[in-house]
Amino acid sequence: MKAKKSLKYKELINICHTLNEDEANELKKIIEKKFRNAWVTVDELGPVVGTHLGPKAIGICFKW
Q1: Nearest 5 degrees, angle CA 52-CA 62-CA 40?
Q2: Which of 7, 9, 13, 29 has the greatest number of CB atoms lying within 10 Å of its CB?
């Protein structure tokens, strides 16, 4: 279930991972401290992309 973006946030940052949720959540905390006006989410990548990246991959997507 996707949450709706709140109007109080100006930026959207998404952390994507493959079998690496703990590190992704650590990264989320760091990013939230640095970018206080950002809405930060964590999602697991699907099997097609995950197969090419391999386990423990982390990526950051953003929209300003």
Answers
A1: 100
A2: 13
Beta-sheet pairing, 38-44 with 11-17: parallel
Tens of pLDDT, residue by residue, the chain (64 residues): 455 655 677 899 999 999 999 999 999 999 999 999 999 999 999 999 999 999 999 999 998 7
Contacts of 50 (CB under 8 A, 6+ apart): 18, 19, 57
- Residue labelled with tokens 């929209």: 63
Classify strands 58-63 and 11-17 as parallel, antiparallel or unpaired.
antiparallel
Coil, strand or helix: which one is 22? helix
